[in-house]
Design brief:
globular, Tachylectin-2, Chain A, mainly beta, about 300 residues, GH43_arabinanases, 4-stranded antiparallel sheet, Glyco_hydro_43
């Protein structure tokens, strides 16, 4: 058994699953040891019944010898859609643009295998952090980032997916640039980061997006809002970040007591990054962190 402080991952994603009447939480993330260098073995998964004690790691994805990517295995997230579990993750190879690939499995623990004919982001774009979103009609979309490394001012896009999640329909739609957020801080060269989108439907029907960038106190996470309540937007940015100091790439989930919880990694510095869980609430059409300072629910 491990606590979160003993699990070295970035970009945490937690999937609650009911199994034979019992609740199990599955935790995925970027393996800290090979986040920036070295050849990763794949993606792992941890299991917990209480969000405190975690079993693992167990192998969730191990690439075959002919898999197209060999480094920078980043930000896996897993969704139950239809009769399968789908993993969306970022991958890179020498001479091939960073891209989001969708993988498929029959169980949240895997084994996951590549789905479709390859990446679902444009072949000549440097992209990362694809996340799944279902619109009001139940149609699947992927929201993803186009990297500042290629476009300077990082961009956020949405693209329709096929019903089988094995390809895209139409062209990606630009949602916003990173510099549109008042809290996002650019480099001296005017470079702005877009990272880690995750969409959440508020209790009143409003649609918000968590996403991360550099802030005045380091890596940070803010909220964008769709003024139409749909993926098309237009999207506006909250003036202040939701999490301001050296942490981000977050997602929301509800535990089996229906508490709304946020998981992020903090700090952002390697090799100290670890997942934490923070309780949040909806208040006045926004999200409010219940815990203050370093008083996390679990870490």
């Amino acid at each position: 058994m491990k606590t979160l402080s003993e699990i070295h991952i970035r970009d945490p994603f937690i999937l609650p699953v009911k199994e034979e009447g019992e609740g199990v939480y599955y935790l995925y993330g970027t393996t800290g040891k090979t986040a920036w260098s070295g050849q990763p073995s794949g993606f792992n998964v941890y299991r917990s019944r209480d969000l405190v004690n975690w079993d693992g790691p167990a192998p969730a994805f191990r690439p075959d010898d002919d898999f197209w990517s060999d480094h920078h295995y980043w930000a896996p997230e897993v969704h139950h859609y239809g009769n399968h579990y789908y993993m969306l993750a970022s991958f890179k190879a020498e001479g091939i643009s960073r891209a989001t690939q969708i993988l498929i499995a029959e169980h949240p623990q895997g084994p996951f295998r590549p789905h479709g004919q390859g990446p679902v982001t444009p072949a000549d774009w440097e992209c990362l952090d694809g996340t799944l979103f279902l619109d009001d009609a139940g149609s699947p979309w992927m929201v993803f980032c186009r990297e500042w490394l290629q476009v300077t001012d990082g961009e956020m896009y949405a693209v329709r997916l096929t019903a089988e999640l094995d390809g895209t329909i139409g062209e990606p739609q630009l949602l916003f640039h990173a510099s549109e957020a008042p809290w996002s801080v650019g480099s001296p060269k005017g470079e702005y980061v877009t990272d880690g989108p995750f969409l959440h439907r508020l209790e009143d029907g409003g649609l918000v997006m968590l996403w991360s960038s550099q802030g005045s106190q380091g890596y940070a996470m803010g909220l964008a809002r769709s003024q139409s309540g749909s993926i098309a937007g237009p999207w506006t940015q909250d003036a202040e970040p939701l999490f301001a100091k050296d942490g981000g790439h977050g997602m929301l989930f509800r535990d089996f007591s229906d508490r709304l919880l946020l998981t992020i990694h903090t700090p952002n510095s390697h090799p100290d990054e670890r997942p934490v869980i923070i309780e949040v609430k909806e208040e006045n059409r926004t999200l409010v962190i219940r815990d203050q300072g370093d008083e996390y629910l679990h870490r």
